[in-house]
Amino acid sequence: MALLRLGPGPAPGRHRSVSGASGLGLVGRYSGWAVGAVAIAAMVFPMVASDYWIDVAVFWGIYVLLGLSLNIIVGEVGLFDMGHMAFFAIGSYTTAILSGHFGISLWLLLPLSGVVAGLAGYVLARPIIHLRGDYLLIVTIGLNEMIRISLLNNPWGLTGGPNGIIMLDQFRVFGLVIQKPMHFYYLVWACVAASMFALVRLQRSRIGRAWNCIREDEVAAEAMGIDVRSAKLLAFTLGAGLAGATGTIFAAKLVVISPESFTFMESVILFCIVVLGGMGSIPGVVLGSAAMLVLPEILRNFAQYRMLFFGAAMALMMIFRPQGLWPSKRWTTKLQEGESE
């Protein structure tokens, strides 16, 4: 049996079956009972776990959302972006400032912060979108530091400088204030489920196929009539918007927002999540986030050695499984024996 890697779509008459989008074909790849068991286990988890592990799961979910947002840029289009925390910071500070000064509900700020961060992503990416590879990587690092230093230096007296901003509002649902770890757990993972559903639909759309074509061969994509520049800007805008919306949840959970939460190392962690999980793979982002966020907590009793274990695991992954923990299977077709390629 041979494997054939195709571009933006499978060639007609050349295959027998095409795998589901990004390995997330829940109906095709997994039986219904397995999916139901995972969903039930996720719903029951906060009822039996301690607040500590619920908090770990909450921040895991936040980083899953951030990983999904970066996966649009890095995994789908193949652009190197290591300044993604800048948009997360913009969303967090937008929430804290508008909530504190104007008393806007966090439910309204959730999409509004996404819009503000998305516009910032569009404006910042527009003059640099023509860059490729390590050149784009270096510029995005610079953008991340520019945003962080601007927040640190307290422009216009809004950001609180190094002291940050204290959130005064919380999410409310029918009079219930979302402030306990269990409440945030359900909120975060509901957002993860909605985001994953939307991104799967996007991957299967014409836009998703155009992104993958650009990732595989930008010159060929442009020759086939794809507006490469607009597609890249759309990816940057959507990725930044999702990161900004995640910033609202982060601000409500953490209460205190300061520049130390948005350093370059956090961008490196996000980049590792996407690469470790599998570029372009939505379930890979979930596994990559678990490896980067949950595994160090499990190894906390081996504090002196856990980073050694973690570094060794990363090195072994890159040697023996460079495609990631759960690589994307889209556009991979299986040819039966006897069929010509």
Would you tell me which CATH topology applies?
ABC transporter involved in vitamin B12 uptake, BtuC
- Please identify the top-level CATH class: Mainly Alpha
Helix/strand order, N-terminal first: EHHHHHHEEEHHHHEHHHE
Radius of gyration: 21 Å
Helical segment count: 13
Please provide a brief summary of the model.
The chain has about 350 residues and is mainly α. The chain contains 13 helices and six strands.
Q: Describe it for me?
A:
The protein is mainly α. It has one domain: Orthogonal Bundle (ABC transporter involved in vitamin B12 uptake, BtuC). It has helices at residues 26-29, 32-48, 51-76, 85-102, 106-125, 133-152, 181-204, 206-216, 218-223, 228-254, 264-277, 282-298, 306-320, and strands at 2-5, 165-166, 171-173, 176-178, 256-257, 332-335.
Tags for this entry?
two-stranded antiparallel sheet, ABC transporter involved in vitamin B12 uptake, BtuC, 5% strand, 341 residues, disordered N terminus, mainly alpha
Blueprint of the fold:
Elements: E1 2-5, H1 26-29, H2 32-48, H3 51-76, H4 85-102, H5 106-125, H6 133-152, E2 165-166, E3 171-173, E4 176-178, H7 181-204, H8 206-216, H9 218-223, H10 228-254, E5 256-257, H11 264-277, H12 282-298, H13 306-320, E6 332-335
Antiparallel strand pairs: 1-6, 2-5, 3-4
Helix pairs in contact: 3-7, 3-10, 3-11, 3-12, 4-5, 4-6, 4-10, 5-10, 8-10, 11-12
